[in-house]
């Protein structure tokens, strides 16, 4: 039987506002029936701190540190915690809620989509697997994560290698469409990451950073050989094709589509009103 064909877009490193605007535009176009389901790979220029839709900037983020590190800053349309996008492959998946292979619940759809990432890790020779919160305490901590740092907060169907989180994803559903995007860490600068958030005191910061080492890990910390961005792209593209049983066809944005994306970027994601609104 012929496999379903999805669009594949690799936009390379884009600005924070462009990256979020394109994910939003792809969701719009899919909801209008203009494009099939789509998988996109991208990076960030400059390196960027993105925060979840519901996070409070003044309470959680040290904007002076963000500026001092020369980082971009943007609020995502999805939930979740703060992510430093630097040495990573970022992906997004756009697919209708009505797609026959998509479960109705967020957590189950997350698992189905993340199957592609799981297979990608296998292509890199890594023993990744899904960890599910088992205890009531673990489940409660999903509802109220104590940390503002994404890779420090647990979530359902966590992708782990050697017991530590290797990919962080967030999902939103709008206009009948699922948008899931996330980070696959190649390397991580922990000190820089932890300098970007506010803490009650230095002792708490120290404790959280220490705990973080046991919870999260980057690919190149545990891979037998160094993985480049290009190798990661190849592995995860294959992974998505296998995990979702689809064929990916390269898609180029038209000048008209790019204009639409840049309009959203300017009107929403470059505005303080959006980025600092909570």
From TrEMBL:
GO terms for biological process: lipoate biosynthetic process; protein lipoylation. Residues 33-248 form the BPL/LPL catalytic domain. Gene3D superfamilies: Bira Bifunctional Protein, Domain 2 (3.30.930.10). Keywords: Acyltransferase, Ligase, Transferase. Pathway: Protein modification; protein lipoylation via endogenous pathway; protein N(6)-(lipoyl)lysine from octanoyl-[acyl-carrier-protein]. GO terms for molecular function: ligase activity; lipoyl(octanoyl) transferase activity. Its EC number is 2.3.1.181. It catalyses: octanoyl-[ACP] + L-lysyl-[protein] = N(6)-octanoyl-L-lysyl-[protein] + holo-[ACP] + H(+). The record marks 165 as: Lowers pKa of active site Cys. The active site is at residue 150. It holds the Pfam family LplA-B_cat. The keyword Kinase does not apply. In the reaction, the free carboxyl group of octanoic acid is attached via an amide linkage to the epsilon-amino group of a specific lysine residue of lipoyl domains of lipoate-dependent enzymes. The reaction proceeds via an octanoyl-thioester enzyme intermediate. Belongs to the octanoyltransferase LipM family. Catalyzes the transfer of endogenously produced octanoic acid from octanoyl-acyl-carrier-protein onto the lipoyl domain of GcvH, an intermediate carrier during protein lipoylation. Monomer. This is Octanoyltransferase LipM. It comes from Cytobacillus dafuensis (Bacillus dafuensis). The lineage of its organism: Bacteria, Bacillati, Bacillota, Bacilli, Bacillales.
